[in-house]
Amino acid sequence: LEVEHLHHHHHTPTPAASMPGHLRGSGARLADLEPFHRTPRDDGEKNPAARIVAGDDVETAVGRGEFGLGASSFTTRSKESERTDGIDAKPQLATKKDEKKRDEKGNGKYHVLLTANDAVYVRWQSRIMYHQYKKIASDPALAGAMGGFTRILHSGKPDDLMDEIPTVVVDPLPKGIKDHGYVVLHRPYAFKQWLDTHAADIEEEYVLMTEPDHLYLRGMPLFATPTRAAAFPFFYIDPKKPEFTPIVQKYNEVKAPIDAFAPIGNSPVMISVESLSRVVPKWHDLAVAMKQDPEADKAFGWVIEMWAYSIASAQVGVTYELHPEMMLQPPWDDSFQVKGKEAYIIHYTYGQDFAKSGVATPGKIGEWHFDKRDFTGFPPKEKIPMPPKDAHEVIQKMMTIINEGITELPHWP
Fold first, then answer.
1. How far, in Å, CA of 413 to CA of 406, rounded?
2. For residue 3, what are the contacts with CB-CB under 8 A and spacing of at least 6?
3. Which residues are CB-contacts of 269 (< 8 A; sequence separation ≥ 6)?
4. What is residue 345's three-state secondary structure?
5. Closest residue by Cα to residue 329 from 316, 343, 318, 340
6. pLDDT of residue 408
7. Helix (H) or strand (E) holding 285
8. Between residues 244 and 98, which one has the greater pLDDT?
9. What angle do helix axes 273-292 and 186-197 make, rounded to 10 degrees?
10. Using an 8 Å Cβ cutoff, are 204 and 148 in contact?
11. Residue 105 has what pLDDT?
């Protein structure tokens, strides 16, 4: 998340019933959600307070494994074919020709791509994120299919992290295009420039699009194939909801079936460079057009760029396999496993509040508190106190990684 989102992300005491896990059954508008990225997933019986209530079309469909199987996009499976983990996470098998192509370029790895501006808030998160990436990527037992790393800096000029983080510099949006204070509108244009100018410089055939507040627990395997990308699902990207369907259809130039629209944003997404090159021009055009469209802007709010990515993918025929285990979002996720599968990323977009007993108190400032937005204009000056000893394992690991960055990186802050 980049700095212009801050005034929409501030952490204030909020009644527990208004937290994202309750909004699904409350009739709340999309704009009422914690803006631009990431909501708690259904926590089952472990955390009823954070549970996503039943009845949402996308979540129900994800549970049935309906996304990511069709030749053109997504296919509903019979009940008999349902998997016990609720989602078909087995990648579509690549042909021998596909496998040979993959081996010829990149040795079956993916390149990590981070888009960022040069704001202080983004810079300190990017430093910690890359520091953790290096630890994971250098450990054969943890690296998975991780390859190289590039920060796409869309400020138009170099900064003083160029020697610390592998970086290419691209331009912000042209002056004739208004972002209306929505910095994420620059992201598709940044990727467009990277594809035009820098994509040929990497070895890998695949990329993982990621963000500054992503902390790696371990490297993902190569989930993507030449014919199919992989992504983390978001319940609120739901084109079947009556308030969203007319807007989606307004931009559905190829008249793709409604099931062709994946419940995703652009991050985390693992995708071949070839497929990304098909999505990005349409993604850029749609994001700009939709942001200028009062109806779309009102309906989609601070996740409009995510909707643009989903719609663009359907327009060019790029399909996705959904992997809920890609990412954890504390405090809602309190275990390293998602439906029996080990997770790969901790995403610290939410404020963290815990009582001394170790119980999370979302919506209420806790006796122990951490929120990245508390460090908007300056990085944390020193190691942050750890959570209560009985707080769950995900928040403990999250703060350990952040503190390792603070104490181990040179010239901090």
1. 8
2. 117, 119, 120, 121, 122, 183, 376
3. 208, 209, 229, 230, 231, 232, 309, 320
4. strand
5. 343
6. 98
7. helix 273-292
8. 244
9. 150
10. yes
11. 55
- The structure tokens 């901790």 sit at 346
| Strand, helix or coil for residue 405 | helix
The residue type found at 8 is H
Helix (H) or strand (E) holding 68: none
Strand, coil or helix: 144: coil
Tokens of 79: 């009940």
Q: Which of 91-105, 246-260, 334-348, 373-387 has the lowest mean pLDDT?
A: 91-105
Q: Kindly report the pTM of this predicted structure.
A: 0.78
In this model, does residue 81 exceed pLDDT 80?
no
Sequence-distant (6+) residues with CB within 8 A of 134 are none
Dist CA 322 CA 336 (whole Å)? 18
Tokens representing 37? Answer: 């990225």
pLDDT in tens, 150-185: 999 999 999 999 999 999 999 999 988 988 888 889
Q: What single string gives the DSSP state of each residue in 215-232?
A: EESS------BTTBEEE-
Helices (H), 20-174: 20-23, 57-64, 96-104, 120-137
Check residue 183 and give its pLDDT: 85
Model pLDDT, residue 1:
40
